[in-house]
Amino acid sequence: MNEQREWDFEYVHQKTGEKRWFHNIAMGSEVNGKKKYILVMSDRTSDWKMNQALSEAVRAAETANRGKEYVSFQYVSRYPDTHECDHRFYHTGCK
Question: Is 14 left (phi over 0), alpha (psi -120 to 50) or beta?
Fold first, then answer.
């Protein structure tokens, strides 16, 4: 009987309230006719926090890029009394 199971687990410290994330591996086998188990707990909190920060940065960048799509340029003349048109503002044309 050799078996292995893996799962992720979120743990909240009862005194501090701090959240921590673990990856667990449980292995079971039979030794001298008796069941024996080994549990390996790997603290993945720093990885989880880094992934959260990266996800938030990606969302912020995507939001900023979507905002750029809707920015329109308005031509402001250097000389208010003339009707000059600066070709760099061809997005909206001259008014």
Answer: alpha
Question: Is 0.85 surpassed by the pTM of this model?
Answer: no
Please give the Cα distance from 23 to 6 (Å, whole number).
7
Q: Is 82 helix (H, G, I), strand (E, B) or coil?
A: coil
Is 22:12 a contact under the CB 8 Å cutoff? no
pLDDT digits (tens, 9 = 90+) for 15-47: 999 999 999 999 999 989 999 999 999 999 999
CB contact at 8 A, 26 and 5: yes
Sequence-ordered strand ranges (E) for the chain: 3-12, 19-31, 34-43
